[in-house]
Structure formats: structure tokens, C-alpha cells
Specification:
8-stranded antiparallel β-sheet; Uridine Diphospho-n-acetylenolpyruvylglucosamine Reductase, domain 2; about 475 residues; alpha+beta; Vanillyl-alcohol Oxidase, Chain A, domain 3; 5-stranded antiparallel β-sheet; 3 domains; 19 strands; Uridine Diphospho-n-acetylenolpyruvylglucosamine Reductase, domain 3; binds flavin-adenine dinucleotide
Length: about 475
């Protein structure tokens, strides 16, 4: 009834308005620092619902935010006033093990896709926290445990169904709209709303060999040297991460170390277990090891290992950078930053890239920085939203700044805060940026989809 009164014709989902019982739950996103009050939340159950919602938003000149998993760091999937097109009910997954393809709804979270695919011994290389959305992560790139072997998530995007700025539903394939498919592989939500992702599935062993080891921060420099030495020669089958964290009060960590800064070195290997064990040996023997958690495990277990370190609802401020060659001074600076962490929930994460990521020619997708050696993410998270956050933000900013000498030249679209247009442009690189702006002019000339890391339509002179 409300839908008809509002002129939201053809919409069969749920419209949530301020004052409705579930309004506050529905406007909440993962980053607890974001507190916005949309005028309408349209919970969609089909591509037709999404199309109706887009037409409604355009007709009423509403800012449109699109919500997949709700994990955007700057909270791009919720807006002040305006319309949220919420895709979270669209969680269908179809696995075709013969064709090795998955048809994935835009509200699906990685936990669901990982377990549906693993049942067939298959996986899409995805993010490393299982409650993150497949949609946003795929459209911005997608770096995870399997990326060195099977590429980024966007490299595994074969086709998509898309609702355009005019409310049309189109099929995007290599044959129909190859330019658009190129743009969806890294260009974010700039060109429309994806209502179905066709993703390539890749074989994984069950179990695979993975896990992590913990060192006290005093031993971190030696352990990081071993980690980076291994990274320089690692085969594609070996995924590698290192993180500077605060030791949680977990039973496997000696009580004297609870609440102290630590280094976690983590790996995932998709080959024979004996080979994996030999390869990761330097990660276990680099000093005063506190915890050794390597061994056979399922991919779905690996994918949830650090879920608890990224709980929803806490304020977060993160900065990220693609990195070039790394040396001993980099390690020293990184470890220094961990001694100064202002919250036990904060962390510095180093993901080793290269392998299959680097082998895709730069012009083949809209994703930038394929040549980087690693991605650095400095994330502060703190427990109290009402307390002053400046110390936490300053630590993030100062740590990120201290690492600039090792920058490969820009940041990662999926890890950008609200850092301004120049930084978005930098994240793509000049040639890709110009191509994206031309594509945006073709598919969204009025910038209907602007609540994202925005590409201005056709704006070749933007600075
Ligand atoms: P949302 O906030 O729903 O969406 C993010 C952006 O995508 C918004 O601009 C939104 O409008 C747009 N969007 C969403 N769905 C659609 C759609 N169907 N069509 C068009 N546009 C859409 N990144 C990695 O690469 N690897 C990781 O391991 C990783 N781990 C993370 C862990 C955590 C805890 C968090 C918070 C983030 C992580 N990220 C990682 C970053 C992640 O890729 C981005 O935050 C991503 O945007 C999340 O997607 P989402 O669908 O959950 O977010």
C-alpha cells in the first residue's frame, strides 16, 4: 500500500521508513563510526525490485546508496536522507561443478559462497573475513588467500546481470558489453547495480594446509625478515599474510602476553601438505615462537580464522597502500608503529600479492597496481564510539605516512576511506581512470551512482 502511495510501482520487496521497528537495524553498517539516516530503505528480492527502486530514486532525485554486505570502510552503502537499495535478501547461490561456475546473488556473504563451493572442492578467490559481502569486494578487486594462485576476485568475474541508471536490466558478458565487463572488474559500483555475479570456481584441496604462528613483538623483526624472504621466492600456491596485532586473552597464548603487541605470520598452501610444511618452516623457526597454529584445515575454517578480529559495530578508521620492494628499514618502521598502537582492536596488515595477480595484463581489467609486491592496511578500531577518536585516527594516519617511502604509488579502492577524488584517481592510474570516465559517461552520464569511490562521467580534466 505504502509502495503504491509513494509511486514505487513494480516493487515487491520491503520498504523500510524512519519510524519502522526495523529502521535502525536496517540503516546500520559494519563500521560503527557511520551513523546515517536514510529517508527510504528498499530491501529488494529481485532484479525487478532493484530496477523499480532505481527508477523511483531517479524520479524523486534521491541520492542512491547501494548495499551488498555493508562492509565499506567509509560506509558508502548508507546515506543521509536519500534511498538505500538494500540487496541483502538476494542471497541465492547456484553452483555448477561441471562448468565450474557460480551464479551468486548480490546479498551473498563470503561465508555462504565459500561453504557452497567447498562442498564441490571448489572456491572463488575472495576476501579473508567471512562476513564481508561478495558484491562490493568483487567490484573493487578482491584480494585473498587464493589470489596469488587464481587471481583477484574480479579476475574471476565472468559475467553479470546489471540494473542500469535508467532502470533497465541487462546481461553483461564478453560478447554483450565487453567494455562494461572490463569496468565491473575493479571499477566498483559506478556503472549500475549488479544483481547477479557469474564467478569462476577453482579447485582446492580439502583440507588444505594453512594457519598462523604468533611471535611477541620483541621477536617481530627477525620473523618479518624470514616472512619477506619467503615471500620473495614463494610459489603461487602459497598465500602469505603478516599482521601486527594485540594478543587476545586466548587460552593458547601465555597469560603474561595477553594484551601485549604481537606479530602473526599466516599462510595458506594449496599443494601437497609435505611441500607446504617444508615451505612454511621459516615462519615457525624465526625466534621466540608463542603459538604454532599451522596444519591441515578446510578452506571454510581458514576463511573464518580472523572473523572475530573484525566485529561489526565498532568505529574504524583505515588507510591502505600498495607497496613496492620492501627492505629492513620498512620492517623496522612497521614494528615501531605496533609499539604505538592506541587500541587493542587495531592492526597493521601486510598481504603479499604477485603471482596470478601480476600476470593479468594491466589493460585487461579496471583494477590498478597489479605490479605491487604487497598491500598494507593500517586499521584502527576502538571500543567506545562516544570517546574521542583522534588518537586512533592519528596513529593510523602517522603509520600510513611513515610507510610512504615504500609505496607503489596509490591505494586500494576497496580500502579507501573518504580520501577525495585525487586518491581515487591514483588508485586506478591515469590510463584506466580516463577509460573509466568514458565508460561512466556512456552508462551513467548523470552520475546516479555516485555514492561510491566515484568516477566523474567523462571528466577527463578532473584533478
Ligand atoms: P558494501 O558497503 O555493501 O558495498 C561497498 C561498495 O560497493 C559501495 O559503494 C556499494 O554501493 C557498492 N556495491 C555493493 N553491492 C553492489 C552491487 N551489487 N552493485 C553495485 N555496487 C555495489 N577486501 C579485500 O579485497 N580482501 C579482504 O580480505 C578484505 N577483508 C575485509 C574485511 C573487513 C572486516 C572489511 C570491513 C573489509 C574487507 N575488505 C577486503 C574490503 C572490502 O572489499 C570492501 O569493504 C567491500 O566494499 C565490501 O563489500 P560489501 O558488499 O560488504 O560492502
Amino acid at each position: 500500500m505504502t509502495n503504491r502511495l509513494l509511486g514505487l510501482t513494480g516493487f515487491t520487496g520491503t520498504l523500510i521508513l524512519p519510524g519502522d521497528a526495523d529502521y535502525h537495524e536496517a540503516r546500520r553498517v559494519w563500521n560503527g563510526a557511520i551513523d546515517r539516516f536514510p529517508a527510504f530503505i528498499a530491501r529488494c528480492s529481485s532484479a525487478e525490485d532493484v530496477a523499480a527502486a532505481v527508477r523511483f530514486g531517479v524520479r524523486h532525485d534521491l541520492a542512491i546508496a547501494v548495499r551488498g554486505g555493508g562492509h565499506s570502510f567509509p560506509g558508502l552503502s548508507v546515506c543521509e536522507g536519500g534511498l538505500v537499495i538494500d540487496l541483502s535478501p538476494m542471497r541465492s547461490i547456484e553452483i555448477d561443478p561441471e562448468a565450474r561456475l557460480a551464479q551468486v546473488g548480490p546479498g551473498v556473504l563470503w561465508a555462504q559462497l565459500d561453504s557452497a563451493a567447498e562442498a564441490h572442492g571448489l572456491a572463488v578467490p575472495g576476501g579473508e573475513v567471512s562476513h564481508t559481502g561478495v558484491a562490493g569486494l568483487t567490484l573493487g578487486g578482491g584480494v585473498g588467500w587464493l589470489s596469488r594462485q587464481y587471481g583477484l576476485t574480479c579476475d574471476n568475474l565472468i559475467a553479470a546481470q546489471l540494473v542500469t541508471a535508467t532502470g533497465d536490466i541487462i546481461e553483461v558478458t564478453e560478447d554483450a558489453h565487453p567494455d562494461l565487463l572490463w569496468g565491473l572488474r575493479g571499477g566498483g559500483g559506478n556503472f549500475g547495480i549488479v544483481t547477479r555475479f557469474t564467478l569462476r570456481l577453482n579447485p582446492i584441496p580439502i583440507p588444505l594446509y594453512a594457519g598462523m604462528a604468533l611471535y611477541p613483538l620483541a621477536s617481530a623483526e627477525a620473523a618479518l625478515k624470514s616472512f619477506l624472504d619467503l615471500a620473495r621466492t614463494a610459489p603461487d600456491a602459497l598465500g602469505l599474510n603478516a599482521a601486527l596485532i594485540t594478543a587476545p586473552p586466548a587460552p593458547f597464548i601465555p597469560p603474561r602476553l595477553h594484551g601485549t603487541p604481537m606479530l602473526a605470520v599466516a599462510a595458506c598452501h594449496t599443494g601437497a601438505h609435505a611441500e607446504a610444511e617444508a615451505l612454511i618452516r621459516p615462519l615457525r623457526t624465526a625466534g621466540d615462537l608463542v603459538f604454532d597454529g599451522f596444519g591441515p584445515m578446510s578452506y571454510t575454517v581458514l576463511q573464518t580464522l580472523v572473523d572475530d578480529s573484525a566485529p561489526a559495530g565498532f568505529p574504524v578508521y583505515a588507510r591502505a597502500e600498495w607497496l613496492g620492494p620492501l627492505d629492513d628499514l620498512f620492517i623496522e618502521r612497521l614494528v615501531e608503529s605496533a609499539w604505538r598502537m592506541t587500541s587493542p582492536m587495531s592492526q597493521v596488515l601486510l598481504r603479499i600479492t604477485g603471482g596470478a595477480i601480476a600476470r593479468v595484463p594491466a589493460a585487461d581489467t579496471a583494477f590498478g597496481f597489479r605490479h605491487a609486491t604487497a598491500m598494507l592496511t593500517v586499521a584502527s578500531m576502538w571500543p567506545d564510539r562516544t570517546a574521542s577518536d583522534s588518537a586512533h585516527r592519528d596513529w593510523t594516519q602517522e603509520t600510513w605516512q611513515a610507510m610512504q617511502p615504500w609505496s607503489a604509488g596509490g591505494g586500494y579502492v576497496n580500502h579507501l576511506q573518504d580520501e577525495g577524488p585525487q586518491r581515487v584517481r591514483q588508485a586506478y592510474g591515469e590510463q584506466t581512470w580516463q577509460r573509466l570516465a568514458t565508460l561512466k559517461q556512456k552508462f551513467d552520464p548523470d552520475n546516479v551512482f555516485h555514492l561510491n569511490h566515484n568516477i566523474p562521467p567523462g571528466d577527463l580534466t578532473a584533478s
